[in-house]
Design a protein that fits this description.
Structural class: alpha+beta
CATH class of the largest domain: Mainly Alpha
Mean pLDDT: 85
Distance between the termini: 43 Å
Strand content: 15-25%
Largest sheet: 6 strands, antiparallel
Bound molecules: adenosine-5'-diphosphate, magnesium ion
CATH topology of the largest domain: Rhopdopsin 7-helix transmembrane proteins
């Protein structure tokens, strides 16, 4: 869980950093300000409306009235019966700059012509109905104030909404580009992400693919929205203006139905009203699409209907839609898991940002430029990326856990196979071999007593080896016939004390200390000699694993109706591969080991209805946990 959180946090930081990196405006803010401080601003001007049937002239009418306008409260709504406006600006002396220029970052109008002393110095035209425009051109140097007249032809809005800046032409154009660049980069980044997501969708199953493709559509359309909302795009791709506008409008018509579909698919408890509204909304979007195409086809004469359906009627519907998304998100963030909480928050930030933007239509006097929705989109995509990363990482963990389980299972299977074979072999051979061994041992002892010292040493070695062989055989026999001949109530404390006494000499030789902490009242069912054999094997292994200052702890306690015995040592420890192989016949890492001790121990504990588990850290030590059913704790 923590690892996932860490990864998500790292991802968040990464995305945030790249987002900030995409805002070069921040880094350059100082120099841009410096450039602008040298520039002078003109925040007041005059407007004269151009009548619908007035001829196209080079200069404003001498009889029509002028209306004062300014950047704070600009006059832009073209009155009935007019088709554009003249704007009159007074330019201060410009001899301070090597190439003076003028920049109006935001001006409404389709065709713009600028006259200085009745001479045309700048002209731009648009054959599409996107009226948010920029004005940027070089001026002639002059040592006294000059009058500048801008003729604007437009549909329903005309005139500047931001102060005009006069300054060094190069710096002005740089500052305009820099201001728009973050949006372009952001849009491009999201477009790239969307395409990647579409590519990935090929790897998903049908059910996931639908939500995923919806998501890609959301990302793709939002990138188009961001890119085509910037005036810089229209400046760069001057000739494709009507296409850009069409892309913007149709992206908006896809974006909201896709958002609706996505919300309906991620949240499981959806109000029927929301679903109904969604259907209705999708239908209306399709209708608007037809309007778009008609507008393309019929041109400006259709503009009124275009604007009515795709803006004035669409905006309140989008508002209602976003309010519904907010309510669904809030309702949902109280239920559901963490993933849906994250998605809820992302949707919430998009919806709130969108609502705040749209509210500006109704609250501000002038038609505003929306910008908050871009942050909303970034936050939504961020949330989706986090959820995706969480899904991937949890899938990865599951895969690892599964493959581990598979490996363990495989080992167990192998062990059972081997055990079966060994036990059959053991049963047939062990019994036959033990008797001759005993007889041989007896004779060897007899002869040894009559021999000289040198031979006696040899005989004693031979006898020792015979003892070892017979021990192995008894291990085999225990294994082959683990049935408990006599079952009795065993007092754990008594039994373990005896085992400790037996093993103490071996421990002392190896410099080890036993620490016993076993309550006196724990009883289990079992065979005393098999019990002792099992624990002797375990303690022997611990002793053999020890280095200097070895400590072996033996503790017992009651846990969930079971007796839990824990044997721990601070010896050489084992890695996971070793632990998995414990109990496998002949598995030993010791030069003189048989690899039968634990095989027998496992078998004995199993027959006594107990379990044996190991936990170990290489270089630190090993813990063995043995659990038996508890009989009584007086
Ligand atoms: P043997 O003791 O003859 O090697 P066992 O079946 O008793 O055979 O043990 C198998 C192997 O398990 C040992 O060789 C050793 O590598 C490992 N082992 C068992 N217990 C421990 C322990 N307490 N500490 C470290 N390794 C152990
Ligand atoms: Mg052993």
């Amino acid at each position: 869980m923590n690892a996932i959180r860490l990864k998500a946090a790292a991802l968040l930081v990464l995305v945030l950093v790249s987002f900030l990196a995409a805002l070069p405006g921040i880094g350059h803010a100082k120099s841009a300000e410096a450039a602008e401080s040298q520039a002078s601003t003109i925040s007041g001007w005059e407007i004269q409306w151009i009548g619908e049937d007035a001829p196209i002239e080079q200069s404003p009418s001498l009889t029509e009235p002028w209306h004062a306008s300014n950047a704070k409260d600009p006059l832009i709504a073209i009155p009935e019966g007019s088709r554009g406006a003249w704007v009159h600006l007074t330019i201060p002396p410009t001899s301070d700059w090597s190439v003076p220029g003028l920049l109006i970052k935001q001006i409404y109008g389709l065709d713009l012509s600028v006259y200085e002393n009745s001479r045309l110095i700048y002209h731009s035209e648009r054959d599409f109905s996107f009226d948010r425009n920029v004005l940027l051109f070089a001026l002639e140097k002059s040592s006294q104030p000059e009058d500048l007249y801008i003729r604007i032809e437009s549909l329903d809005r005309a005139g500047p909404v931001r102060a005009a800046q006069i300054g060094e032409f190069n710096q002005l154009s740089e500052s305009f580009t820099r201001g728009e660049l973050p949006s372009i980069l952001l849009g491009a980044a999201i477009a790239f992400l969307a395409l990647l997501m579409l590519l990935i969708s090929g790897y998903l199953d049908a059910q996931q693919r639908r939500a995923w493709i919806t998501l890609s559509l959301i990302a793709l359309t939002s990138s188009v929205l961001i890119l085509t909302y910037s005036t810089l795009t229209f400046v760069i791709f001057k000739d494709f203006g009507s296409l850009l506008l069409f892309l913007f409008d149709s992206s908006m018509l896809v974006f909201f139905p896709a958002l609706h579909f996505y919300v309906a698919s991620v949240f499981d408890e959806i109000k029927p009203f929301y679903l109904k509204f969604g259907k209705w909304f999708a239908g209306y979007s399709a209708f608007c699409f037809v309007i778009l195409i008609l507008n393309e086809w019929m041109g400006d004469s259709f503009f009124f209907y275009y604007k009515l359906f795709t803006f004035w009627l669409l905006a309140p519907m989008i508002l209602i839609h976003l309010v519904l998304v907010v309510s669904q998100s809030i309702a949902h963030s109280f239920r559901g898991n963490r993933d849906s909480l994250i998605v809820s928050l992302g949707l919430l930030s998009l919806a709130v940002a969108g609502i705040m933007d749209l509210m500006m239509i109704y609250t501000s006097e002038t038609v505003p430029v929306f910008y908050r929705w871009k942050f909303g989109i970034v936050l939504l995509i961020l949330a989706l990326v986090i959820v995706l990363a969480r899904k991937i990482s949890s899938g990865h963990h599951k895969l690892i856990a599964y493959s581990r389980e598979l490996e363990l299972h495989n080992h167990q299977l192998q062990r059972t196979e081997k055990l079966k074979f060994v036990s059959e072999l053991a049963a047939s051979v062990a019994h036959e071999v033990r008797n001759p061994l005993q007889v041989t041992r007896g004779f060897l002892q007899l002869i040894s007593s009559t021999s000289d010292q040198k031979n006696r040493d040899h005989f004693s070695m031979a006898i020792n080896e015979l003892d070892r062989a017979s021990l192995i055989i008894s291990d085999f026999l225990t294994f082959a016939k683990p049935e408990l001949d006599t079952i009795a109530e065993l007092n754990i404390h008594e039994e373990l004390t005896i085992v400790e006494t037996i093993m103490s000499p071996l421990a002392a030789i190896n410099g080890a200390v036993f620490r016993m902490k076993v309550p006196e009242n724990l009883l289990i069912l079992g065979n005393p000699s098999k019990f002792k054999q099992a624990f002797m094997n375990l303690l022997k292994n611990s002793i053999e694993a020890l280095n200097e200052d070895g400590i072996i702890e033996v503790e017992a306690a009651v846990e969930n109706e079971k007796v839990l015995i824990r044997i721990s040592d601070n010896g050489e420890g084992m890695d996971e591969e070793q632990i998995v192989r414990l109990g496998e016949p002949y598995y030993s890492t010791k030069s003189k080991g048989t690899g039968l001790g634990l095989m027998v121990t496992f078998r004995i504990i199993e027959v006594m209805k107990g379990t044996l588990e190991f936990r170990s850290v290489k270089g630190k030590g090993t813990e063995a946990f043995i659990r038996f059913p508890l009989v009584k704790a007086d």
